[in-house]
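Suppose a colleague, Dr. K., hands you the sequence of a protein chain of 146 amino acids and asks what its three-dimensional shape might be. Before reaching for any lab equipment, you can write down a predicted structure in token form. Begin with the sequence itself:
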Amino acid sequence: MAGGNTGPSSPSGVVVNAAGTIYVANSGADSLTIYPLASTGNVTPQRTISGTSTQLDNPQGVALDAAGNLYVANADMTTSSITVTALASPHGIGFDATGRLYVANKTTPSITVYAPGATGDVIPIRMMSGDNTQLNQPLFIALRPP
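The predicted structure, expressed as tokens, is then:
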């Protein structure tokens, strides 16, 4: 997608749901744009989510869980979050087939893993960090589909 109607501002994350709807995180505008299924070319977004009430703050990554819930990684240095989980400058997120949430944390060079359905101030079920991982400011994460 490209052109004056598309509306993204520094797009930094994208995910497509099973129906083909496209979700784009716009770090330059603290917003999320949603495009109709299989959009191509100079298409106008179906919806744009923005404003201070959204709590979007430098969104970097987006992911969908098996239930279709949308998660956005906010990478602002003072309010880093994914829904209600505080993280160290999260940039990339993804879900595996069991619903575990994987997060690439730039500031603490690490990958944290959370249990399916975890909410609130929870401890990760796994953390990958340290010199042996060779992680250096990870920005994105990709998981193999089931």
